[in-house]
Amino acid sequence: MSAIDHSRAAGALLLCRAEPDRVRPSAQLLREPLFLAPAGEGWSVLVPGEGAAEEEGANLAAVTAEWAHALTVAESWPAVGLWWDAEGAGFVVASGFRRTVGFTWLADGSPLGEESALTALRARLGLDPVLDAEAFDRLTRPDSDADARARVLGLVAVLARAGLHLPPGLAPGSDARMLHTAAAAAPDAEPVEWPGWREAVRTGLDASEQGALGEWIRGPKARALGAAEVAAGVSLLVYARRSRGARRGWAAAGAILLTDGALTIAYDAWRARGAR
């Protein structure tokens, strides 16, 4: 078998700081073919299907940012999107309504971005403010021996200190087909597909009752939060429909907010009836 030509390989990984049961509902709402697998204690990895980025009609960095933002817009856990192609490599970090930020390395490893993105990554993932900061600093310094792929691998090594352990074969630098094959063979991996609205709502309610989505708030605060998410979700869906240049990432974020808000309101009402 010939070696991978990393100058041509392109792919992306979405690293979620949550267990698969918590990631699955939001991943379904992306309406993209994905593989979901555990990636260490408290971590999951999502692998987009072959050709998913090309269908979006945008560069890989932008698509990865949209996916990461849509995944976490209604969640308490952050996500890190890794991407690489012939032009370079980089990462984005998304968490709730906070601004999604990213950093890029050119193909030869030259850093192209603001160090504040690495600071945001460290803070949102709760990494060590001293040891990990020093490791991140090395990733922003010129290094003639480190190309773009080596830089992203170095980032993965830092995240491993926080418990990230990618399944075999899911390494930055591989092409989308190899990633897809490796994800399908990973232990406890599962395909994630859009199940339809009725099944998505049922799954969400089941997961909330089992505690897989964390502890949901109840009472007036829950109703207010749910209403706000529904309103924001509808606004994003309308924007995505009316804007010619809007990508499906906006629609996915709107759908996730709308569903999460509706589930919050429904769960609060259901528990209130049960308490009577």
Give short descriptive properties of this protein:
49% helix; 8 strands; 276 residues
Q: How would you summarize this macromolecular structure in one to three sentences?
A:
The protein has ten helices and eight strands. The chain is α+β, with helices and mostly antiparallel strands and 276 residues long.
The amount of beta strand, in percent, is: 15-25%
Strand order of the largest sheet: 7-6-5-4-1-3-2-8
Count every helix, treating DSSP H or I runs of 4 or more residues as helices.
Answer: 10
SSE pattern: EHEEHHEEEEHHHHEHHH
Helix-residue proportion: 40-55%
Low-confidence stretches: 1-7, 212-216
Rg, please? 19 Å
Helix-and-strand structural type: alpha+beta
3D structure, described in words:
The chain is globular and about 55 Å long. With 276 residues, it is an alpha+beta fold. 49% of the residues lie in helices and 16% in strands. It folds into two domains: 11-191, no CATH class; 196-275, no CATH class. A hairpin with a 2-residue loop joins β4 (79-85) and β5 (88-95). It has helices at 20-29, 52-56, 60-72, 116-125, 131-139, 148-160, 176-185, 197-210, 220-242, 248-275, and strands at 11-16, 34-38, 44-48, 79-85, 88-95, 98-106, 111-112, 190-192. Strands 7-6-5-4-1-3-2-8 form an eight-stranded antiparallel sheet, sandwiched between helices. Residues 1-7 and 212-216 have low confidence and may be disordered.
